[in-house]
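Continuing the series of single-chain predictions for the mutant panel. This is the parent chain; the variants come on the following pages.
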Amino acid sequence: MLKTKIIGPFTQLLTMDKILLKGSVNNRQLEIIPNGGVVVSEGKIVRIGDFELLFKEFSGHNAIIEQIDGEMVAMPGMVDPHTHICWAGSRARDYSLRLAGKSYPEIAKSGGGIGDTVAKTRAASALELEAILTKHANTHLKNGVTTIEVKSGYCLNTGGEIKLLEVIGKVNQNLAVDLIPTCLAAHIKPGDFNGSSSEYLECVVNELLPKVMKRGLSKRIDIYIDNGAFTTDEARVYLNEAKKLGFDLVIHGEQFSAGGVSLACELGALSVDHLEVIRSQEIRLLAASNVIPVALPGSSLGLGYQFAPARKLLDADCSLAIGSDWNPGSAPMGDLLMQTAILGIFEKMTMAESLAGVTFRAAAALGLSDRGILKSGHLADIIGFPISDYREILYNQGSLKPSVVWKRGERKEKAMGRKGDGAME
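Parent structure:
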């Protein structure tokens, strides 16, 4: 007989169900179950509803009762659809220079920038990178992020990119949180590559991507389209080749220049991420497509730059996911909830829109339909806040953190343990 667990009662159970994937959302559309409960079996939700009714129905079937004492608001575990949390070294020097008025090209020329992180990450051992990634992933899980996309892209050679993807895979096996690997070998052309950007991408296609696909290290390919990275024409050739190999496509686009959005819509990418300089014509393209736009407020905060126009995107009937962009250069903070709250106040997003952006809409940006909503058949990824009103979550602008995290129905509030293990290290 399968083990069944009843969790509750929650003062409010915020399901995020019955909200459309695209368009604006008002708070009245939120399904909130008072005195709610969740029935869990084998890591998935069996039923949600009134706790007392669930107790009467399931308690006679040897169900375990996980009693919640005191006030608590529960919602789906957050999903971060865009991070770079597998790196070595620090870019605090870059940040200091940026505050002193130096431009990115000036910082890169003086030995900083992505190249600095690439050198340090190449030099780091797999064990060192595992420890760094584990620390970052555990921090995210403790703060309520139960699914994390993780990019490679800080080695930019075949052996190094394989090393990073292997590290992501190994840490994913050892931790409770789900890590979704993305191959970002097309981050920039590495400084030590003797050839053009097109020739570098050709080498990636011929030497790296077949190995990644054959070994199952990642199903997703990302490329950075911008000044100083890759052009739209270069990216089109690369992404078409990756698509032929069976990869899902993701694009860094419209951070400082245009081109990424139109290509994402042309090729049917899962998402296009950044969007700080997106124009009206690209917003219309996104609205007519199935591509998920992903805003990255952490990058705007780290660079002192404008936010993606979330309000315009939502009002145009686009979807909108929100990622932390946690990385050592432009977005070192990594606090997804705080960044979401800040984006919401500047872009006048409803609380429902902000919460959708870090739950089921973020899951859709990863091609995942089994999480981000509390409903039957979905993963029992749940976070609980010690409050009685869900509005306190964003009102506190990230300073209020979950007191309890359930990953696949297992309670993880004290530390971050292995998959299926309630104890923590």
